Amino acid sequence: MEQKPASPAARAHWTPARQRLFLTTLFECGSVARAARAAGMSPSSAHRLRRRLAGTAFDRDWSHALTLYARALADPIAGHLHAPASAHG
Questions:
Q1: Is position 69 within any domain?
Q2: Are residues 80 and 74 in contact, defined by beta-carbon separation less than 8 angstroms?
Q3: Most buried of the four, 22, 57, 63, 71, by CB within 10 Å?
Q4: Percentage helix, strand, coil for the chain under 3-state DSSP, each rounded to 5
C-alpha cells in the first residue's frame, strides 16, 4: 500500500523563527491559541513542543511571557512602560 505524501501543513514544524514569533505573540496577547496561529501552527502542537522542551529556554520563556502578560493586565500602565518596543511601530 502506497502512502500519500504529507500535506504542507502536516509537514510544518517549529523552526526557531516560529518559536520566536509564538513567544512574542504570546507575550503580546496571552493566548496560546492566537500565538500558535500567528506562527502558523496549532495550539496542540505548541503544547506538545513545550512538553518536549520542558526545562529549556523555550519552556521558561513561555512561562515568562504569560507572567509578563498577566502583570500588564493587572497594572496596564506599568506593563506598558516595561514592554519591549514593537517592531510595527
A1: yes
A2: no
A3: 22
A4: 65, 0, 35
Give the domain extent around 43: 16-77
Quickly list H helices, 39-87. 43-52, 57-74, 76-82
Cell 506598558 belongs to 80
How many residues are there in the chain? 89
What predicted TM-score, i.e. pTM, was given to this entire model?
Answer: 0.74
Tell me how many domains the chain contains: 1
Residue 4 lies in a domain: no
Give the pLDDT confidence of 42-76 residue by residue, as tens digits: 999 999 999 999 999 999 999 999 999 999 888 87
Residue 32 lies in a domain: yes
State the helix-helix crossing angle for 16-29 and 57-74, rounded to 10 degrees.
20
Sequence letter at residue 24: T
